[in-house]
Amino acid sequence: MDATDIPTTQTVARVQNPGPEAQFIIQDGQAVPHLSQTQILVKLLVSGLCHSDLNRVYGTLPLISDIVGHEGVGIVVKAGSAATTHMINKRVGLGWLSHPCMECEVCDVEYTSCPKQQNLGRDLPGTFQQYIAVDAGFVHPLPDNLQSQIAAPLLCAGISMYSAIRKCNLQTGNWLLIPGAGGGLGHLGVQIARAQGYRVIAVDTGEDKRKMCLEFGAAHFIDFVTQDVPTEVTRLTSLGVHGVICTAGSIAAYQQAAQCVRNAGTVVCIGVNPQNLPISPLDMALGSSAVLLALFLKCKSCFNLQLGAK
User: How does pLDDT run across 135-182, given as a tens digit for each residue?
Assistant: First the structure.
């Protein structure tokens, strides 16, 4: 697209009355964003809808921008004066992290944890619009064989699961337990872990979830309604799993995670539960440094999207 072809107005979907009675309102004639020196303009092709977007729409989480969305794929159509022009006409992905300050001591160590960061769909207008202005340094070029509608959720849920799997420090052939494996995060985790050579035990309930998880590469499926999860894990692995990524937010799932991980294993927390979790530090310590890690939804380098294309 030539710069002269870029319209001055666009259509956006805005959140009206955030809270239990929230609605999306479609508005035409809204201004196409102007670029700062370091930004690029992306014409969006698709946008995913993350559960955290719904939490902001319905008032569970704070909402600053009334345009949500942080799982976008589009074509770069314009670059700011200080941004590289080689990305123009290239297809890119946009994720949650849009603008860390890059000046604080946290950024020196891990800029994805910047306390001053700005995020698409929260502080900044998100991907529920036709055109979006984003920092050129925080978009992800996409491989040609990865379809846009598949890439979009990988830019949030996919990165979250890839990051969580990395935190488990697994070796090829190790056991990985995923409670909530049939959900939005979990089913991606099954596929990513399998592609990296890990043996996945999927935990969920129902025949449909069982079939899906096994088709996506899980070695085993445990139905938490009809089976005792720790007993089954012990039967399958003898010593327990090397890692657990708990995408389910229930207290029972976290209790079982601590019971299923082997000595020196790792539990990564992704599923959110507002209640206190009754997990004993003593139990973790007696497991010879089994570690309970805090939620980690961000990955400094976007995970290998060629892996996602598989």
Answer: 998 899 999 999 999 999 999 888 889 989 998 999 999 999 999 999
Distance CA 113, CA 70 (A): 17
For the cut 70, the answer to whether the pLDDT of residue 288 exceeds it is no
- CATH code of the domain occupying 3-141: 3.90.180.10
Pairing mode of beta strands 118-119, 131-135: unpaired
Question: Which of the pair, 185 or 278, is modelled with greater confidence?
Answer: 185
pLDDT in tens, 47-87: 999 888 998 999 888 889 999 999 999 999 999 998 888 89
Strands 261-269 and 291-293: parallel
Residue 205 contacts residue 272 (beta carbons within 8 Å): no
Produce one character per residue of 221-254: b if its CB has 16 or more CB atoms within 10 Å, e if not: bbbbeeeebeebbbebbeebbbbbbbbbbbeebb
289-292: list long-range contacts, CB under 8 Å, 24+ apart.
Answer: 289/263, 289/264, 290/258, 290/261, 290/262, 290/263, 290/264, 290/265, 290/266, 291/266, 291/267, 292/258, 292/267
Quote the CA–CA distance of 138 and 298 in Å, as a whole number.
12
- 99 confidence band (pLDDT: 50, 70, 90): confident
Q: What is the mean pLDDT of the chain?
A: 88
Domain edges within the chain: 3-141, 158-293
pLDDT of residue 289: 43
The yes-or-no answer to whether 3-141 and 158-293 have a common fold is no
Q: What is the dotted CATH code of the domain comprising 158-293?
A: 3.40.50.720
